[in-house]
Structures are given as C-alpha cells and as structure tokens.
Design brief:
Oligomer: heterodimer
Number of domains of chain B: 2
Number of helices of chain A: 7
Order of helices and strands of chain B: EHHEEEHEEHHEHEHEHEEH
Strand content of chain B: 15-25%
Number of helices of chain B: 9
Radius of gyration of chain B: 34 Å
Distance between the termini of chain B: 61 Å
Structural class of chain B: alpha/beta
Number of domains of chain A: 2
Largest sheet of chain A: 6 strands, mixed
CATH superfamily of the largest domain in chain B: von Willebrand factor, type A domain
Strand order of the largest sheet of chain B: 6-5-4-7-8-9
CATH class of the largest domain in chain A: Alpha Beta
Largest sheet of chain B: 6 strands, mixed
Helix content of chain A: 25-40%
CATH topology of the largest domain in chain B: Rossmann fold
Strand content of chain A: 15-25%
Shape of chain A: elongated
Number of strands of chain A: 12
Order of helices and strands of chain A: HEEHEEHHEEEEEEHEHEH
CATH architecture of the largest domain in chain B: 3-Layer(aba) Sandwich
Chain lengths: 288, 331
C-alpha cells in the first residue's frame, strides 16, 4: 500500500505553492498601456461658459480640466501622461511623461494648477498649435490629445501646410464647448470678470495678406465663440487624429482607455494570486 | 480599522465555504463493525476539534490573502534636513542660446539644457526636500505645487529644455513662486531658486509688492544667473555705462539686495560654474525640518500567505499520520 494518499500530496503541493509566494514571483508581460500627450487650449475663448452639467464646472477650461483629470486617472496602470498647454502658435510642455498610477496625485495637482493666465499671447492659431503639438507628441513617442474649442483669433484665410504624414497621426482632437455661440468673458489678471470681449477689441487693421479683413458691418457687438466643429473635423481628417466632441465629461475617459493607440509595454505582473488560487483549490480538495 | 483596504473584496464571498470544514470531518471514514464498545476518546475529540479550526483558519487565511489586503498610504512624521524649494525657471527665448551667447555657438549645450541637467542632479541629491516648480517667460506658468513626488519633479525639470518662447518677465514669476508658500505651514527653510539668464526692469509698485511678500512668507532667494560672456557680471560690474536699459541685471541684483531676506547670486557663465552654484545651495540649506513622509500603501497579502503556510504545516502532518485502512489488504 502506498504510504500517503492523494490528500497528503495535494496538501503538500498547496503548501509548496504557498512557500513559493513568499519569494514574490513576478513575470514581466507585455500589457497594453497608453502614452498620451495632453495639450490644453488656455486661450481666453476657453473661459466661455456654455456647459450645463450638474456638478461640473460650467466654463470650457474648467470642464476640460475636470474631464481630463478623470480620464488620466482612469488609464490602466503603466500608462503615461504628459501635459502641455497651447496658446498662440505653440504647445508648451509642462510635464514630461509620467506614470499615471504611481504619480496620480502629482498629475492631478499639476492639472488643477493650469490657468488661462499662463497664456503668453492672446492669439490662437489652432492649426499652427496643433501641428506644433503633433511634433511635440512625436518627439515624446506619445499619442496626442488636443483639447480645444477651435475658436481662432484672428481669423486667417488659409491654414499652414501640414508637414507630417497626412492621416497617420495617432490621437484625438477633443472639441470643447457648445455649438451655440456665447460671449467670451473678459477678465483682469486677478481672474475677476470685467465684462465681455467685443468685436471692437480685436486689432483694427491687420497688415498681412494671410488674414481675413473683416467687413465693416461685422465690427460691432460681442465677440461670440462656439465649438468650431468644421475646423476641428477638417484638421482631424487632415492629420489622421480622431475627433471627439466633449459633450458630456465622462465619455472622454472611456474613449481614451479604449483607443487603439495602446502599445504593449512591459508591466510586471504579480504571480502570487495565481499561486494562491491554486493552493486554495488544492487545500479544498485535501480537506474535504 | 479604516486604514486597511482590500484590492479584490469579491474574494470574501468565498469565505462562507470555509465553514464547511468546521462541520465536515475532513477525512475518510473507515468502516468498522462495532464502535459502540470503544470508550469515549476525549483527547481524540479535542484533537479533532483543533484540527477543524485549524483547517478553517488556514482556508480563511488563503481567501483573505487572495482578496489582497493592504495598509492604506500613511503619513509619518519625520525629522530631516531639507527645505521647501520653489524652482523658478526662466523659459524665455534667450534660454535657447548657449553659453557663448549664440544659438549654435561653440559651447555644447543651450542654457536651458545645461540648467536641466544640473537641476536634475540637484533634485536627485536633495532627497528630503519638497519641490515646486514655476516657469516664466512672458507670463508665469504654475507647473507643479509643492510635492515630494521625486519623479514628478523630474518630469517637470525634464520639460524645461524644450524651446523657450517670449521675453523674460521675472516679476510675475516671482509673485507666483511666493504664492506657493501661502497655504503651507512653515516647517522648514523656504527657498526660491531663481534660474534666469537676464534681468528685467520691475516697476516701483511691483517691487514694493514683491518685497512685502518676501517678508511675509520669510523666503530666501537664490538667483542662479546664467551669464554669457557678452553680458555684464553683477558681482563685478563695469564702472561705467550702467543703466536700466543696457544692464538691467545689475539693477535687479541691487534690488534683490534690498529685499530684507537672505539673498545670494550665483553667476554661472559656463556649465561647470553652474554646478558649483548648485553645490553651494546644497550646502546652505540644511536646517532641521519636520516633515511628513507619505508611505505608499503596503501590501499585506505576503504576511497572510506566510501565516497560511504556518497553519498548513500541522495539517500536512495530520494528513501524513492518517490511517486509511485498518489492516494491509492481502496480496
């Protein structure tokens, strides 16, 4: 007769597996993880208030920041996020790519610190900014997420030439704002509202063949701003980015998580739960 | 306890299964014709009861370990030497130049790249300090509030050698850096480390405001002046031709001396002297500092697996001692 029965052996194997967990075995597996460069438009049209989602900020920049915070923190571990702001013609890198799980708190506080007053110029050339952001994203090996309302000041007749590969860029253009035109609040440097921007506040004469001369009759009343879908969709088609309208703040997180731009990056996977589970099954078998 | 958490709490649903082992004998019955005449075995009963509880504890341990218990992140008070340092960094277009004063001169690096390299080393060495970061050109940018997250500070410093834009506008940058201290308790030396390659004229009104804020928060100012050979030295200024328009650096230096807080300027006209400047700052700031260190959440499942192993060993012994048949079957 065999000295020991199967109960003994399964109990022994369960204990050996348990002993193995003490060495904290890990295996490095490629897991899908994202690397995004988030570029936030901080020109003043982003101060327009046209969101009416309960519990969320009503101004475009505030809502974009809140939606971004949620989206960044819900990316799978191992993903990385870089932050930049856009004004005038350029994207300005604030934070180089940072892992989102371990440094979530720092990313959150950096996001909250973004302010429209950091804009180094009042103009916003959307296409220039987007192309500059694409270059920045390429240098960081990241997919681009460009959040803007598409409102361009001053208006130009034609866009700059896109020098990248058309239709090959990875990432999103996120359209912020509502589709109905609303006035743009004018604020002083302390952030207090002092009225609204009027069309007469724009420079009267622009000496460049690139800029559209405004007709005399257009030069009265408030300067209105809406989400410029046409421009954003055109730019998305040109560059190959996907267009995502930010209608409700919670959809962005899902969209970014499920984006096909995830690359397999090595992430250390803890093997202990698997060993522990096997040990549990064996122990059940041994003791019943 | 509130500072314990579970990663996969759904595992706890499996826990009632362990109660089965309290009721179940947990071994095979051996048929024997007449048990009635055997005396009560009190010790045997006790051992059996012990064994059942042991099995229950063992399985509970495993299930709890699988649920992934952890101790939430905690703040622990520590005493160390360190400071609250706001890195206030110039990102104007002139930072793209190298130390020879040209965009692509003889020197290897642009000023911003040199500053980046050294600040990275500085941040790496000052392990106990809190860092915040403000960058300025035409307008100030608040990049990172005071944090202990070293990797985040590194990520912020790594971003500074991207192309700078705009003009040098120091005053708003300084005001924003001073603002950083406003809601923080004074637990250590407060330092504003200004890294800039030039000076600007600050108007009288703003000068007064900055002076007042500096005194309010009690911050000290260290200015790392990235000088190229063509601009003047603020420590050894030329005797003639000093004016606010041609040599604003000198007047900025004179103004900083009137702030009424500890102030030092370090002239760095090549990467090596920049390193020396940072080393000096490094030596200066070692006052004792009470600070809270956030310990990241600690996984406790290893302890439970270990405990499970200890509880399991006697069970293995029982299994080994088990008699499965009364006698050897005949061959």
């Amino acid at each position: 007769m065999k000295r020991f029965g199967w109960r003994f052996w399964s109990c022994l194997v369960a204990l050996v597996l348990l002993a193995a967990t003490l060495f904290h075995p890990r295996i490095v597996l490629p897991r899908p993880a994202h690397r995004y460069l988030f570029v936030l438009d901080i020109t003043q049209s982003m101060n327009a208030r046209d969101y009416h989602v309960p519990g969320w900020p009503s101004d475009r920049l505030g809502l974009a920041k809140a939606a971004l915070e949620r989206a960044v923190l819900s990316l799978p571990c191992g993903s990385e996020a870089a932050l930049a702001v856009f004004a005038h013609k350029n994207a300005y890198l604030l934070l180089a790519p940072l892992e989102v799980c371990e440094h979530g708190a720092a990313l959150r506080s950096a996001l909250r610190a973004i302010d429209w007053r950091s804009a180094w110029a009042g103009d916003s050339y959307i296409a220039y900014g987007l192309f500059d952001a694409l270059k920045l994203a390429a240098s960081l090996d990241a997919a681009l997420v460009f959040l803007t309302d598409g409102h361009q000041v001053p208006a130009t007749i034609k866009d700059p030439v896109f020098r990248g590969k058309p239709g090959r860029s990875r990432g999103f253009i996120v359209g912020v704002g509502g589709s109905a035109p609303v006035p743009i609040p004018r604020m002083d440097l302390e952030g207090r509202a002092i009225g609204f921007w009027r069309k007469t506040d724009l420079p009267r004469q622009v000496h460049s063949p690139r800029f559209r001369r405004q007709a005399e009759r257009d030069r009265s009343g408030l300067l209105l701003s809406h989400r410029d879908e046409n421009r954003l969709r055109r730019l998305a088609d040109l560059t190959g980015l996907r267009y995502h309208p930010l209608n409700d703040p919670e959809s962005l997180a899902d969209r970014l998580r499920q984006a096909p731009t995830a690359k397999k990056r090595p992430v250390a996977v803890d093997l202990r739960p698997w060993l522990g589970f096997a040990a549990l099954l064996l122990a059940f078998a041994a003791l019943v | 306890m509130t500072n314990l958490g579970l990663t996969h709490p759904l595992w706890l649903l499996a826990w009632p299964l362990t109660l089965v082992f309290l009721l179940h004998p947990g071994r095979k019955g051996v048929p024997y014709p007449a048990m009635e005449w055997l005396p009560m075995d009190a010790l045997g009963r006790k051992i059996d009861r012990l064994r059942r509880w042991l099995a229950w504890a063992f399985l509970s341990c495993l299930i709890l370990a699988l649920a992934g218990p952890f101790l939430k992140e905690q703040k622990v008070a520590r005493l160390g030497t360190g400071a609250h340092i706001v890195l206030t960094i110039d990102r104007s277009s002139s930072m793209n130049e190298d130390f020879s004063g040209y965009l692509s001169g003889n020197a290897k690096d642009s000023k911003s790249a040199a500053a980046r390299k050294l600040l990275l080393r500085f941040v790496e060495q000052r392990r106990q300090d809190l860092f915040a970061m403000v960058a300025f050109s035409t307008a100030p940018v608040h990049i990172l509030p005071l944090t202990q997250d070293r990797a985040a500070v590194r990520a912020a410093v790594e971003a500074i050698d991207r192309r700078g834009r705009g003009v040098t506008n120091i005053a708003p940058g300084l005001l924003m850096a001073l603002e950083e201290f406003r809601d923080h308790p004074v637990t250590g030396a407060r330092v504003i480390l200004l890294v800039s390659d030039g000076g600007t004229h600050i108007d009288q009104d703003t000068q007064e405001r900055i002076r007042q804020r500096f005194r309010d928060v009690g911050a000290r100012l260290y200015w790392i002046y990235l000088r190229n050979p063509r601009s003047i030295s603020v420590l050894h200024p030329p005797k003639r031709n000093l004016s606010e328009t041609t040599t604003p650096e000198y007047f900025l230096h004179r103004y900083f001396q009137t702030l009424g807080v500890p102030y030092r300027v370090f002239e760095a006209d090549d990467p090596e002297s920049l390193a020396a400047a940072i080393a000096t700052v490094d030596r200066l700031e070692n006052r004792p500092l009470r600070y809270f260190e956030t310990i990241p959440r600690r996984d406790l499942s290893a302890h439970l697996y270990g405990l499970g192993l200890i509880l399991g060993l006697p069970l293995l012994l029982w299994n080994a001692l088990e008699i499965r048949q009364w006698f050897e079957p005949k061959r």
